[in-house]
User: Fold these one by one.
Assistant:
Number 1:
Amino acid sequence: MGDVGSDRELVVGLALSAGQAVAWWFDLVTDAVTWMSGLDEVLGVPGADDAVVEAALTGLVAPLTVAAKTAPVWQDFELEQPCETPGGEVRWIQFRARISEHPESRRLVGIATDVTARHEQQQALTDLADRYRLLVELSPEAIVVHEAGQVVYANPATVRFLRADSPADIVGRPITDFVHADSVSPMLHRISELGVPGATSDPAEAVLLRFDGGTLDIESVSVRTTWEGRPAFQVIMRDVTARLAAAAALHYQAALVAHVSDALVATTADGLVTSWNPTAEAVYGRSAAEAIGQPIHLVVDAPLDPAAILEAGGVEQAVHRGADGGSLAVRVSVARMADGYVLICADETARRRAEQHFTTVVAALEEGVIVVGPTGLVESANRAAERILGVTEEQIVGLPTTLAELYDEAGARLPASNYLSARTRLTGEAQNGRILSLDKADGARIWLSLSCHALDSVGDGPSAAVVSFTDITERRLLDGMLEHEATHDALTGLLNRTVIIERLSRASRQHRSGLTAVLFIDLDKFKIINDSLGHSAGDKVLQVLGLRLSQSVRRGDVVGRLGGDEFAVIAHGTTSPEEATALVDHIRGELNRPISVDGRNLHIDASVGIVVADADDPRDGADLLRDADLAMYEAKTRGRGRLAFFDVDLRERTQRRLRLEQDLREAPRKDELWVAYQPIVDLRTGRATMVEGLLRWSHPRYGLIPPGEFIGLAEDSDLINIVGAHMLRMATRGIVDLRAAHNPDLLLTANLSARQLDDPHLVASVRDAMRTTGLPSGALCLELTESALMRDPASAARTLAALRDLGVRLAIDDFGTGYSSLAQLLTLPLDILKIDQSFTAGLGKSDDAEAIVTSVIAMAHAVDLTVVAEGVEHVLQLDTLRRLGCDQAQGYYLGRPAAAPDLDRRF
């Protein structure tokens, strides 16, 4: 889809540096954009219309194109932009471009590459690093890194272990400063054996020296690592003071305890049973006599190595067998004694069986279930919870529920104290159907419907709780789509009229500072685009303009489409009407930029009505929008591409206009319309040979309405055909009476508007008026303006020919103010040419005016047209017209318009 030829080297150079890519071009002079096939795939809209691809590409590369318009030739540009596909997926697109200078154009040549995978990898690495940093910083275990014997890092737990004030007290000092002399040599030996990165030492006990002079027993593991690219060692230290104390206590207590609730067994270092308490006899069904002296693994009928258990942490979950062969679920805890081991074997068979039943039932549920212990730590999660949350049970067990950030329906972060499990654990109260959202590890936000119940309400302290939840994300998305469709325009995606009115309500404005400016924007002559290029092209234009409008307003301004080609902008915080005017000028400048549709560059302008309201303005949203609409209409009446502010006078004029429009529909029936006649005098004889019928309206409330007001109203409201036909009937009846009373050869002239010329019933109306009144066809002359004839010359010529076939005479009115030429006069079946009064007014004052009138008379006579001069106000003008050879004239000097009975005797 682009011209690759002359830019091939640029495209190849860019593509080699970017991998698989699609080329595109942006003409910096015309703003036209083209691209190679495949760009729709890169942007995530495969098979999309060119308009969709063009709109997406234009918006994404806008920063490049703006910068490129002032940049030197061959400058390189690079930009990465996020692009959301219709399915909601976010892609990252890399745009690389250079400026190419051609004799006929200057353009930006670029390629687009999908770099989403790289972004996701970078984000994954960043997330991994952040999680590792948090784990290290929040770890309850002390972690230090030393390089060449010097400490280069210490986490907060290390500061606590050593009773230091800050990491600065530790970093930079030799690691041996903090290790007891007896532990230094074993430590150095362990790290000397870590020859390759990632090598790990076995856990070993050591003694740390604290800043307060005390010591701390720890268990440490050293790992060979790197620090800023250099070999180093990371040491992880666990406080084992309590464990060692507990082991010592167990050593002394085990010898004294004869009866405990768990099986208590003592063995030699080789695993031979030396002690077997009564509970052990009950659990295993073997007497002490049978057990003592036997290897422990034989007595419990299962593999059991105390040393191995102790080395693995001291606790083991195992399955033993009793004397009857039955299986026993046993939790084995091992402690070392001076001459052997002490084992506590807790029979958990019944509990484990109940847990198994519970786990089986919970695992089968489609609803996510998490058990939270009394301390707020997660104890278990079922498969549905793993699936919904995107984690494994092992990843969350033992962690506090507050690590998951929850958000309410308004998007606010939920305080930890308001988590369902926290409230239920403290109060025991159940909670049901709470709607919350959270972000999964992959960044996707999901919506959950949660309930929480106390698992064990016995006792006064916090209890465990079970949290159940279902994934309602799809339902929320559907609800969101329906809400969006209800509040947004389907074509442009802008807010619709209902939302605009709501945003303009008094409640919405009362908490705003400054003024609120409402801009009612109506595109000029948009109907021409739909009629000439089709509604599809019109829709594309509306989409482009909607996007431009959104991008041209200020942050916080509200943009909406009201319907058709009407848009609205709400500008809160406006400081003055001048600022609103500046905003309108900026918006019109953006809208005026050419739009390329179907190979054509279209230029769109707009008329804008403005309402400015403060917070105390009593008008509601609908009233403000109505008043802005009135102001826009006022702007239209002043010409295209204008703006107008609303004021009270405008409302009164509009109300008057609406009243007049309603009353004009009834005026013919109520006999409020009448015809005034103005004489047209023959300049050779001084007698009136014609009269012009002029429509007048006597309104019962407003009195005599000026023709300039109600005729324009009739044309705008499509009443002109009705009013015009009525006027023609009255005028023809009146002229028949005047002919009978004064001059049987008196002619009648009457005006036709441009709208009447388009009326398919015009010829029939004229025929009926003449037939009904008995007026000869040659006694009627219809006047048309130049602009009316030029709207559709071919159609006008057909209508004039049909009127001419009736015998009606035809005149061109206001000649010289429109677009006519002598050639056009020759092609139309005209009889009379009327010189516009603006030329007559200059006679006797201006030689130019006399020259123009002379030329017009000469042209008209050359094609056998009778010339009538309008607007004769004094004798000098009349004498000049006679001298120049003008045929007839009319004006106040010769006679004012009057009702038939009041006409003076100029016949």
Number 2:
Amino acid sequence: MNWCKLVVPTCASSLPTSALNMHTFSSKLWTYTLLLLCGGSGLASEPRTFEKDVRPILKAHCFHCHGESGVSEGSLDVRLRRWLVRGGDSGEAIVPGEPTDSLLLERVVQGDMPPEDKRLSEADISILREWIQQGATTAREEPESLDNGDYFTEEERSFWSFQPIARPPVPSIAAASIRNPIDAFIINRLRQHELELSPEADRRTLIRRLTYDLWGLPPDPQMVESFLADSDPAAYERLVDRLLASPRYGERWGRHWLDVAGYADSDGYTEADTEREFAYLYRDYVIDSFNHNLPFDRFIQEQLAGDEMGPSVAAAEELSPSRISQLAATGFLRMAPDGTASAAVDRDVAINESIADTLDIVGTSLLGLTVGCARCHDHRYDPISHADYHRFRAIFEPALDWKAWQPPKQRRRSLYTPAEREQKADIDRRLAVAEETLRKRKQEHLDRILHEELLVVPEDKRLLIKAAFEAKAAHRSPLQIALLEEYPSIASISPGSLYLYSNKRGRRADDIERVAAELETQFIERTQLERTASLPPDQQREFLSWLSATTATQNAQDRPRREAFAELVVTADSLKQFAPDRFGELKRYRDAAARCRELDANADLAKLDAEIKSIRALAPPEQFVRLLTEPPDHTPTTYLFLRGDHQQAGQACEPSELTVLKSASPTTIPHNDPQLPTTGRRLAYAKHLTNGQHPLVARVLINRVWLQHFGRGLVDSPGDFGYLGSEPTHPALLDWLATEWMQQGWDLKYMHRLILGSATYRQQSQRSEKRDRVDPENAWYARMSVRRLESEVLRDAILTVSHSMLHELHGPPVPVKEDAVGQIVLGREMLDGERKPTGDDSDFPGVSRRSVYIQVRRSRPLAVLETFDLPTVTPNCTQRSFSNVATQALMLMNSKFTTQQADLFAADLVRSNSEVAQQIAAAWQRCYTQDITPSVLDSLLAFVATQSDLFLARDNKLTAEVAHHKALASVCHALLSSNEFLYVD
């Protein structure tokens, strides 16, 4: 029958989820139809039954309107065969044995049902027709009712992934190539297809493969030479141990889990894509867990219920390092997009979306099921009911209660110790004093500036303007508003404009002195008039005559009379004597002008600001752990949301495992565990998942491990072990690996050693005509698959060979920003007055750190990574895609990152090697883990010489050394852009 098998087109992977589901389902039904047409045995020879053949079609297309959630349009319920016979408002839906009289078949043939554009495929219609023709039989007696909504047929329950895991016997295979039981399973399957394992790869290939697998980095040439020179039979195993013992291992394999967890340093959901402070503590927890080989069952438990594995978080005054680690682990349940801090969203919708995404992450990462497809209705393909979904949600409801939701910043815990809190409190007290001093000083400057500005406005308006300024804006009268508009220099006085007034204080002092000079003239004249008016009339006339003549002629002969009248003359010098009040008023102006010139508010306040900063810098840095926990004594009721609408609450749902999994792994999730400060629901569920009996968890997780080592999983849909997913190519091997892992205490490094030690892993990757004909996708593992470097690994490999890599574990992420042309690059965002990006993006601390430490900003993927299929985490990534498009070659050729690294690569080669041939050979070795051949070396030597001459001819200012460096950088650039660098094996 194999030649009749229908192959699902690979382009289906690019369809939307709903389309993909429909496509895959219909394709499987087409397979059955083709088998029937081919006259094969099995399916074609068996009569159609409602449970096996018809119910899946109706469930996918009709249940939503005809039976599910109490909805029965036209009074028709199609969930059971007898209800189809009973029919609805239009009469019987089917007439057993009479397809032409069956209204259901007529409606679907005409395209009236399903409604809109959701026509059934010809294969589906053919199955319905055959079933009715054969008598519309059932496989067994139908249930009395479907009131609980959890009716699943034996066919659904018998699906392979829902069956208990049993340890299969290792096939008894005679083969010299067998190194461990993995090879026995693989060879047994290969021989069914008349294939054998390929020969073992050479040592250079193996060390390159291993280091990329376990470190995500190319091997150092010294490592390669040491491995090649090691003749000990255990050299390979020692190399594996060395790689597993390095911190680089946790960075590499932690990245795999971060994909599945949907790790991000931003909230997503809205365009603002708010940054998530301290999300990196979860990333660091994951990396450390892999490096410390934390048993994977414990790893899962801590992520689901780390807060429930110790004393109450709320009551703890100080957290131990191990407790902090457990709490950081719960960041797994805080990774989904979360827009609940934004004021521009419907908050209830955003909350429930975040909860739904969290459940999607849990479902795809641990169960390998698309549980989220049952959020609004029964799952269309897998046996997961709408009620099942909400019982699953109830496990997490006490910590993810949409009615008692807190925004992200309120769902974190300070990591201060009591001593640090006391130190911080003391510093806060000092800060309060310093900030009050600053506040008062600002007010003093504001009062002074207001006084100075009032001095230069008309005196009769000063009080009115001052009152207008001091009045609250909302309470100002029209007259006050008009006054302030007339005198904007007063209206603009504010703390934010102090620096402007400080910068213009010289001009303001000049204005004050000008007003003072005008006043002085007026005061002298008034005082002179007053003194003159006090003289007797005769003396007054004589004094005025003399004053006028004296002023006109300055006749020296008038000296006697001048001396006689001197005490009557008012001058600027004598004003203080004759009119002390007026003199005092002038002094007030001139003192104000002097203060205005002398007092620099900017400098004064900057000094106080610096003092405040110095005090603040004394405070111990405060970190926060983003965690998931439950409020004390919080046991909310979970309601089924009809059609997924949180505003339409239905029945109450108790926490529970999915119904279809209970028979393989029975469990009871407590409503509220009295032994714990929390409800204990998540902890009970986490222990249930890792008890060694759960049918999915170990299979799903070990399949991911296999996927990362071989480029494809034993199940080629790692996030979907349901009906629409791929069936395992080696089901016995999958179960053997799962049981072996659990029996070894969930020791992941043990499983690495087992898989990497197999002959299957150590094969060559060379293709052959027979293997490509029998197994074009290498699903049976008759060779090692050639794999392209992931986006982060490519960047890290470039940094490694150029000797630019900065190895620093842990800590805040390297920030990303948008540059002047809109490309996302590394760097802290700096904007000018027009909000245009400024600043360098290539020279700041951390710029050359590993890619796992680069900020994962959902709306800002780093351009150099995005080009090579950086995964999107919406909400998570269960399997990376690998494309081959022109933009990748263009990025390697033209990106600033690649050209800079090629330049650094060349500079390092020149420093390390004096001869050109040595430089080129070293570059080749670093990039490809191979010795360069003489012919290639000769070609590259000639290229460097030619390029150097060309650079010198183009620019006579270049030295020979600079020209050689540029030519060598061109070679490095070519090596980094080649397919041999981009692919493993």
Number 3:
Amino acid sequence: MESTLYAQDRGVLQDLLNSAAISSAAAQPSLHQHLKDIVRNRQLTARFQPIIEMSDGSILGYEGLIRGPSDSPLHSPINLFKTAADFQMTVTVEHLCRQIVMEQFAAQKLPGKLFLNVSPETLMQRDARYGETLEYIHHLGIAPDSVIIELTENQPTHDYALLADAVMHYRDMGFEIAIDDLGEGFSSLRLWSELKPDYVKIDMHFIQGIHQDQVKAQFVRSIQSIAEKSGTRVIAEGIETHQELLALRDIGVACGQGYHIARPHPRPTHSVSAEVAKVLSANQWAQRKSTPKVQHTLIERILRDVPSIPSTMRNRDVETMFLENPKLQLIPVVDDGVPVGIINRYRLIDSFARPFQREVQGKKACKIFMDENPVIVDRGTTMQEVSQIIVEANPDHLINGIIITENGQYAGICTGPDLMREITQLQINAARYANPLTELPGNVPINEHIDELLEKEIAFCACYCDLDHFKPFNDVYGYRRGDDIIQMTSALLKRHCDPKRDFIGHIGGDDFIILFQSDDWHQRCEQILTEFAEDIQNYYSHEDLERGGYLSEDRQGTRVFCPLISLSIGAVKARPGQFYTHHQISIAAADAKKQAKKVRGNSLFVDRRQDGAPN
């Protein structure tokens, strides 16, 4: 809850003095006028405190907090809302707070969800229940399912039915619901039972010192157990120490919030500190993407030209076709060029092997033995699409094969074994030729593309891109966060390359290569470095950014300072006749990259030796 969080701040003494100064606010017209001026001039600012997933330290969302003017006795939210209550302005002030928090959340394009503090009395106001909030977030471009109404209880709730009705109204609009300060206040446990919220926040009283208090630990375990059974996620708020974070991690609490993770800030961090990340990534196995996508090869690649039969053909004639051709497994049934079914060899032969079946069924039309609902796809369908169809279809369809058409007319078939062999081979090739994490071309297509450019005597610039100080980040923050940076870098390179002229490859790990044919490649590289310097900040806490890195332990257990990740680019211009193989380009680009890495921070080194000019 905001007031509780703020009470921990360095200005706590001043807040208490301010509270005493306005205890008789109702008798102070000047304070009343001051509050009205604040509302009229919208003199409130938002601060956001991250709420993280305890499983990996990623940002679930932010709680939106509010502050009055910095030089005002109403700067503290405690004083602000107390004065609003004294002058019957609670609903007005809350509405303004919500608007300002939502505006600044949208303006900063913060990731994840917004936890929006709302009191039950405001939620149940008639004028607050007819789309005002929904209309406003649509105006700001925020999706309703990104907003969580966090109920903050400042006074007892008496009409649970009315509150439940109001909550259902907001749920119907797409919002989620959270209950603040579970275990503190007037009726939070009953609210949980009545409202069935999506999130519950455990009051900070039960979090502080939890590593030394078995009663508090058991309370949190009990809440966690109830939450797991009721489909609610638990948020531990007020985490202030390393030991509390460890204890909550071991209990299995889903989410966390508190000063040890990050303080409220007008421009909040997008990432936890190295210290927090290491705690949460300990003993966790990274779930890497390991299954490459099936390439977009078309089903016509494995089309078999098998003669079809009409649905009026007699069964004994179909049997003769199977007996005369032992390798024939499937026969498509086609009327007027349109496939209507497929006959499986084993079904017909097995039936005829039974006593009297040949005599009884032999003269009848073959459609009694055909699958009337075969899988039919156009020859332009990709293997990936076909494999998905087979997964969702009846298992018998893989045995019976697939009918392939062209403009609705029968074109041929593909058998189940042919399909499985092709998909398997495509997966093998995908693993060999493309990086499964970024889906960029790997070493084989990179080398092939370089050789093709050299053979055609096309001028290009090979840029070797490498992340500096990536390994310690990977060790501290975990492979999942490391993968996030690899993917961010991949997306950044794609944004600054011309897909019609330039080629991007992922050599492996944190190494990329760009083969520029764009004439303005140097400017593109500078833009890449500028944006990388901005984007990488989202992966560190404010504390890490201020000191330019973080402390960690090396393999000998020694505390070392690790700088922030930076990007080095080594560029080699390849003109016709200068290089002859991809091996030469690779060596030259690697040398240029080594020179770039000697420069601290984000850097570009251009090998100008071929120009006869200094670097």
Number 4:
Amino acid sequence: MRRAVCALLLILIVMGGCAGAKKRLEGQRDLDSCAKMAASGFRPVAGERTERFLGKVQEATARCRGGEKAAAFRSAPWLDWSNYWATGDLSSRVPGSDRTNRHLDPNGRGIDGALLDLEYQRVELVKFNLFDNSGTYPDYVQGRDGIPGAALKVWDTMRLQNRHPNYAAVGGDGPQLCRGELIRYRTPTGICNDLKNPAMGSTQMPFARNVQFEATFPDLGKDELARNRHGDRIGLLTPDPQVISRKLFTRPQSQPEKCREGQGLPGDSPEANCDYKKAPFFNVLAAFWIQFMTHDWFSHLEEGENGPEMMAVGCATQKVANVEQPITPEEATKLGCRPDDRMEKSLTADESDPATFIHKGKRVLTRAYKTTNNNVTAWWDASQIYGYDERSRRRVKRDPADRAKLLLVSIPQREAAGEKTGYLPPFSPGDPIHPAWSGQEATAFPDNWSIGMSFYHNLFAREHNLFVDAFRTQAAEMPEADSGLRNPARPDTVIRNKEVTDDELFEAARLVVSAEIAKIHTIEWTPQLLYDEPLFLGMNSNWSGLIHGDNLVSRALEKIVVDNFGASENARKAGQWYSVFASGPGIFGLGSRVYSDDAILAKFDPKKTDTWNVANPDHVNGGINHFGSPFNFPEEFVTVYRLHALVPDLIEFREAGDPNVIRNKIPVIETFRGKATAAMESRGLANWALSMGRQRLGLLTLQNQPQFLQNLPMPRLQTATNTLDVPALDLIRDRERGVPRFNEFRRQYGLKQLTRFDDFIDPRLPKDSPEEVEQRRLVGLLREVYGQHICDASKVITSAQVNDDGTPITDCLGHPDGSLVDNIEDVDTVVGWLSEFTRPHGFAISETQFQVFILNASRRLFSDRFFTSSFRPEFYTHLGVEWVTNNGPDGKVIEKGTPNGHLVEVSPLKRVLLRATPELAPELAHVVNAFDPWGRDRGEYYSLEWKPRPGAEGDEAFK
């Protein structure tokens, strides 16, 4: 069978390649490479951690998918697929090719090859990178009661404890199962998303890990490999975090007197100027979007604070000629760092020694050396708007005139259509808030407040109320019609539109808004963050499926699954989950239809009778899969979302009447906390949308952190400086929480290691080009800050990978024993991925960050029943299902033309903006993706060029 499939694949590739050769003058060498690739069949999924794919392919495969360019860069540590045909802009396509990417032509081979590579990475990440900190890991490794660990679905540590108020309701001491009111909505604390694991994903559950427990907290020196990796060179404040911040993070300024460390000029003068490295294809709306998202996903803080104990945050030592030396007051002044800065220590949940167990003759940790708790829900449930516990829920104000709505207050004399829907009111006296939040808009998660948070909270509060209004209109027109809602206690009782209570409608609106937010992030924010064809297809596949119909790629993916997960019934059922990643119907709505003669993963079929029943727990829960490990976010996921460099120091403020004119340059720091509320109400939601939509955000690279964050006033700390360097604190937090340093981080995630600082330099650049010279300068700073040491080849430094020849990786990283090597093992993970100058086309983030995303972006959809089997009218209403599916209540709307070669729907955030701020319709008419700068001409096929679209030629940003 394997030979037959390979032979068929070989014939198809050669036939397609020959046709392509006649049209595009493809070389015979590439066709020979395709034949070799087909003959070798599909590579197996790794059986052991040290056998992983690492994103590197054989030479024949590289030539088939990308010709000489792909083959030339195979020796670099970076992923191969970014050099395949058609994975970049027009220049990456085969010369003379048309706009289509036919599967067997060179462009199609490049795209399909990239998707196959990503699929291999994802499968192996699921297989090797799930480490739960709550006590389930021994069962995951060893299995339980004859069931393999990866197939386990229920865990004792995910039960509600007897002190929980819902303990009896879910079954108490017996088998626990959520039912009744607990399963109808998203609960405030996140319990009962999984009916059989009530506590999973809820507040106060421990963060997980994506790296081996033994690799965490390397500065503690508890693991021999970590000691070999770092010696005595690292610690909580070593290398010094403020020195790293000042030397590697600070934005250099051509006119410092016009920036004033991010303070701008008096009166918000448009003459102010704070230089920053700009991304041409991503806007400031995108920068604040991710902060809005992370407020929903994770928080280590309790009501905006850490523990009471204070600690130093650096500016104590630096390397001089590779020797650590104290920093003198004069040197501190020159650097701009502050030795008297202090900050609260990070909270921990458990610092006791972890238990161990024996597996295959080795002693294995049951959890990391320390754990921390996630103090918000881990679900994508808009908890930053609606609350994550009872205290935060009390901060959410509902409209007394219509309790299904959020309270919004209109501003008199505002004539624009969107203004009539109003703004969130500020907190009232007696609201349960931290004193620093006084004056801010009332919402569940008020910490780290700025104009960006104000914008998104007001926007989605409007969207919530617009859904309620639409339902009320529908109910008035059809009061007897079936709303779709059902009470699990009375599953056969129809709830008519006129019978829907305020609370039921409020919770349905929350479900709709939560799903919209997840959809925006998945198919709009991420494809603009990762702006190329493979990721456009890949992210849309996460939501609704990648490849439709029976074709070569879907059959190839199916073959991979069968080969690697076996042919038995149980293995097939387990394996089909993996096939969904790329070739199935997509994750959203998975399991929301049940047919008597089909698997629970069946697609919608109008010819069949749907037997899904809200009273059947196996139906309600049926679409989820946790892959044998309970869902929560890992600490490493928090690390890769340290994206402060995206934020400019100054916002270029514009008004809708004349969008090409920058009227003010407003310091972001002047929109913090309560100032955001005043700024939002005085200038208007639409104008802020326009301003942030037109402005480019900052590149995620070295020397590009906002100056205001390096000098952030923190009077509540009552320290000698009352000031904090936030980028330096980011480094400390990662060290406190045991995130491995950069090189081991990459190895743990199945990426190739670097062996010297020069590996960061993009090998695709012409030698001595301005870009290459600048990268060499920055690499020199890395060497200055982190230093070098004499290596010892007898010290093995990792168990996550081996050398290409199968030998252990040692302290010398392939260099001669006793030679002077770069301390690349000591580089902080954030510093490392900011130093990754070699990135796939259109990637605003590094490939290291992306690897973390590949795993966790899918899991947070797969694990959430409200995005899978419970995406049903019984929970959302009929109107809600239509609203989420079609990006609004009035059916699908298709964009003009074929952006980047695709027929696409008008994007979900664009539709939200059109409903909430209809006065922006003329500006939004030119927008395809709301996170692409609104004045930019997108050009053809993933162009990154910064040039104005028609009508924006006069925009000052293009001068």
